[in-house]
Amino acid sequence: MIKGVFMKGLEISFRDIDHSDAIEQHIRDKADKLTSTYDDITGIRAVVALPHNRSNKGKLAHVSVEVGLPGETVAITHDQHDQAEHEDMYLAIRHAFDKAQRKVRKIHERRVDSKRRSAAAPVIAE
Asked: Could you say which of 34, 42, 62, 121 is the most buried, measured as most Cβ atoms within 10 Å of its Cβ?
């Protein structure tokens, strides 16, 4: 069963896990931090899941984050089956958003660098 929450550029979905106000707020806080750092973000979609694993490791959290930017989307799937600490949903969310922030920062730096290069290019008069 999928339950979703959508509010102005942020969509949060819960799969195979009951809705949690605390988890939702944690995602909102992470998304707010990301959007306040990079104002060109057009939207964020987060999916949290607790799939039924058939191993003895317990239920490991699965977190996917998609960050919309003009012209592209950054997609993060944080699914670490080998890391026992990912039984903690909050830690899995933090890791996914940290990874998303690193990718968005790289894109942002690349775009700023590209704009600087094009602005610094000499104009050739004919």
From this structure: 62
